[in-house]
Design a protein that fits this description.
Tetracycline Repressor, domain 2; elongated; 2 domains; Arc Repressor Mutant, subunit A; mainly alpha
Length: 206
């Protein structure tokens, strides 16, 4: 006979707490979001929050990791010799741009910058779940591209860094500072076309 220790976790409350935590952390930052506020927003007691998450840091990590897992590509792009490489590169690039320019993703980036000054370890966990995961997705794509002969450069990390720099450019910082609006579809296509052109010009195999 299987014996269950402790009270069973209420999944509906668990998800409500995670959703509220994410919303408040994005709106008020890490320091401005207390466990009391999160409990009230989720419609549960503070004790219930602590029954699900032992402390605020654990809750933050869980909420942000969950958000990043949902926002970022779930699976690697499987590149084959049957693909039109330029079309595949555009597809991966557009997905990257749509991800980083999501309003919630931009708020998370600001939150990461704030945390880097007050809680570097927590900022590192957040970076690993978001920025690093996206870089790995791109590196895997460029590694496949090299192995299949689409690209002549074997260092997928370097190609990834160049591609991201081209996609983000200086415009991203202007958006973060609210000097410029989030780019529309036409502007994203322009950024994408320029980035793809440079990557192909430098790294495409003859």
């Amino acid at each position: 006979m299987k014996i269950v220790l402790g009270r069973p976790r209420d999944e509906q409350k668990h998800e409500a707490i995670l959703h509220s935590a994410k919303s408040l952390f994005l709106e008020f930052g890490y320091d401005g979001s207390s466990m009391d506020k999160i409990a009230k927003h989720a419609g549960v007691t503070k004790i219930t929050v602590y029954n699900h998450f032992r402390d605020k840091e654990t809750l933050f990590t869980s909420a942000i990791t969950k958000f990043c897992a949902e926002a970022l590509p779930q699976q690697s792009f499987i590149l084959t010799l049957d693909h039109d490489f330029l079309q595949a590169l555009r597809q991966v690039g557009l997905l990257t741009l749509q991800t980083i320019y999501r309003p919630e993703a931009m708020k998370l980036h600001v939150l990461l910058l704030q945390l880097s000054q007050t809680n570097p370890e927590l900022a590192r966990r957040f970076y690993d779940a978001s920025h690093l995961k996206l870089q790995i997705y791109l590196q895997e794509f460029f590694q496949q591209a090299y192995q299949l002969g689409y690209l002549s450069h074997a260092d997928s990390h370097q190609v990834c860094q160049v591609f991201l720099s081209l996609l983000i450019g200086t415009y991203y910082n202007q958006v973060l500072l609210q000097v410029q609006p989030i780019p529309n579809t036409e502007q994203l296509e322009k950024l994408l076309t320029q980035a793809v052109h440079v990557i192909v010009s430098i790294f495409q195999a003859n």
